[in-house]
Design brief:
single chain; Thrombin, subunit H; six-stranded antiparallel barrel; 6 strands
Length: about 110
């Protein structure tokens, strides 16, 4: 009996996800509460972004995400929908899988890689 490695089974996505370059940071905005939180970025694709933060958000919730690159002063704002939210050990952050409401162009995606 052949079993696929766990990473292959767990990572069946339509779009390639890559780590962002050093110096890129994210801030998440909740328009319903007017609050914002810093967020780490696990990876990004043309269609979505994986964010790690202390705050948890409901599946289906819309959030604003500001990406900023410290060296180039590049700043962009995106609207995302939370697709899943799970606790992520060992630091008890929440991993949010988010879909961009408007997918990124290839050129826009490459700005962050």
């Amino acid at each position: 009996m052949h079993l696929e490695p766990e990473t292959e089974v767990a990572d069946r996505r339509r779009a390639t996800r890559l780590e962002v370059r050093a110096g890129v940071c994210a801030t998440v905005f909740d328009a319903m509460t007017g609050r914002s939180w810093p967020s780490a970025i696990r990876d990004i694709s043309l269609t979505g972004i994986a964010l790690l933060m202390e705050q948890t958000f409901a599946v289906g919730q819309l959030l604003g995400v500001e990406l900023r690159h410290a060296e180039s002063n590049r700043v962009r704002n995106y609207l995302v929908e939370v697709r899943h939210s799970d606790i992520c050990c060992p630091n008890d952050s929440y991993l949010h899988g988010c879909r961009f409401v408007e997918p990124l162009s290839d050129a826009e995606w490459r700005l962050w890689l």
